Amino acid sequence: MGRPWHPEHFVCAHCSTEMGTKNFFEHNGQPYCEKDYYMLFSPQCAFCQGPIIDKVVTALEKTWHPEHFLCAACGNNFGEEGFHEKEGKPYCHSCFLEVVSFLCAGCSTPILDNYIAAINAYWHPHCFVCRECFVPFGNGSFFEHNGLPYCEMHYHAHCGSLCAGCHKPIAGRCISAMGHKFHPEHFVCAFCLKQLNKGMFKERNDKPYCHTCCLKLFGPSVV
């Protein structure tokens, strides 16, 4: 190190062992024996906590002996397909699918990347769509029916709350007639299109008619 020493004074800066003619390492102007140098200044293996003297694997923001970088589930080395990470631990592809990954509620296959958590389940983003028309939810809002997501239109269709006149959802008041539901303004005479009141209409071929039009079209026998 460019300086003269008494042999008994040339010692490891950490353990004070005389180094004599033994190999030593220098760090910040101080000599260290091999054991202490590796312990103090070499990268530490995340598995065994021992110093890494030769080859090193850097993964998951840690360093590892190559022989200690193993699947956290089965303990095998990683092949050419690499590894998957979950909560800071590495997993081989098989264990990640069997032990760690979620199954998509839409397609029942493992989720390996981004996912959506909704309706007490996990979904691939491209699988979280209306289960009737398979259209994605553009604004992120959806309706749930029997544990499945639906767009507003098909949610109301399943719940029987679509207007039979305009085929759009009924959010407020409605009229129930002839086994269907209607917006009040869409419950009209099939001939003159005048708005009808519940109980003040005549049914003919599953269509509602006002009293006047029913009499005009079908005669007094129907009325």
Automatic annotation (TrEMBL):
Keywords associated with the record: Cell junction, Cytoplasm, LIM domain, Metal-binding, Repeat, Zinc
Domain of life: Eukaryota
Gene3D superfamilies reported in the protein's UniProt record: Cysteine Rich Protein
GO annotation, cellular component aspect: cytoplasm; focal adhesion
Cited Pfam families: LIM (PF00412)
Molecular function terms from GO: metal ion binding
Protein name: Transforming growth factor beta 1 induced transcript 1
Species per Swiss-Prot/TrEMBL record: Eptatretus burgeri
